[in-house]
# Entry
Amino acid sequence: MQGELWRWSAVDLARGIRDGVISSEEAVRSSLDRIAAVNPTLNAVVEVLTDEALASARTADAQRRQGQALGPLHGVPVTVKVNIDQKGHATTNGVVAFRDIVAEHDSPPVANLRRAGAVIVGRTNTPAFSHRWFTDNDLHGATRNPWNAALTPGGSSGGAAAAVASGMGAIAHGNDFGGSIRYPAYACGVAGLRPTPGRVPAFNPSAKAERPITAQMMSVQGPLACRVADLRLGLLAMAAPDPRDPNWMPVPLQGPAPLRPVQVALVPDPFGDTAPEVSDAIRSAGRWLSGAGYAVVETKLPRLGEAADLWHRLVVGEERRVLEPAIRQFGDKTALRNIDGHLRYAPPMDGDAILEGFATRLSLMRDWSLFLDRFPIVILPVSHELPFRNGLDQEEDEVVITKMMDAQRSLLAFPVLGLPCVSVPTGHAAGNTPVGVQVVAGRFREDLCLAAAEVIEAHASMPSPIDPR
# Structure
């Protein structure tokens, strides 16, 4: 382990702090110095917690000296997204009207990170209402992609992805309802894990009402990091139980060993619209997995398009009742144009159609359960396009918006199916454009996703964290 501490992985930082090779204060100061150096350019961290973080780091160092039990992330600098509650800080969700909603209690992901010993160095940006694949808003401004300023950093966890890609923290918290961990990870050339619903507890004590049913069923909390091993460590910390979320499930993080060789379904072009660079990345991932002993087969997937369409019909249908009025009242111009695009893409449904949609969801989940019994791992695109140019969702051309929505079908299907996924980078296309693939496994088999993603990562040339390009 050499070089500036902000370049170290979370695994190495945790080991170094535990063994007394470095102190938490040194690691945290390195992250804070890195934020000071690159955040003015990237605007990934919108609230820097210098005094609070240094005080926590000193406490962490004192606990190690006293021989106290140390958590898996003891003393490690991390970031948290501004759309979840962190005691003493505003849960802005990127909305001007919410800037004074100061949390009185930690949400479960924050509480679990603290219990694991992590030191929170800052809070990361999100689009207004966390509802875009782009990250800018009237309250905090725009987050820039560290690889290429002309590209989106992704959304809604764009601040989280840009922060870890540039070394501002070893692990970033994010959440994923419609790709908001996986797509920013893809766009910023880092790794991101969407856990199985029920794996990581979630609840915002500041919320005035419970989340809509589709969010309860499909929205998850998870980690982003430069290294897949750090995702595993972040999941270990974040997946601890919390009685405030009755949907949390006590499922072991390590499942039974699969039959060998593990069968992999490789899907380079699921809808016939995948960019050549993305299809090539998937085929490269297949070769790498084959070389590692996996049995890789190019095949078709069951009802993937139907699952993606159902996301739009159920989620956007419910947003007409809950989210759209709030955006009309409090959203900025980008949020308004974005929600209009989603509403045009997903036609309205009556109550009977919504109930029928939930019944269809179970049928889709069954077909995928049967498929994953044959192929425990699936490799397919995160997005069918390379990372979008900034502001694409603000264009008035409906053909452009429809193409953008279509490109995310492989992203949107899996919240409906309730499956864990990892977005893992594979390299670059022209113009410093990150490319990556999506690894999918059965429910609560994050371990299989992560193991396959580590094989892919070992062959990929992604020198992150990086200086902004």
Observations:
- The mean pLDDT is 97.
- The first strand starts at residue 45 and ends at 48.
- Residues 351-374 form the longest helix (24 residues).
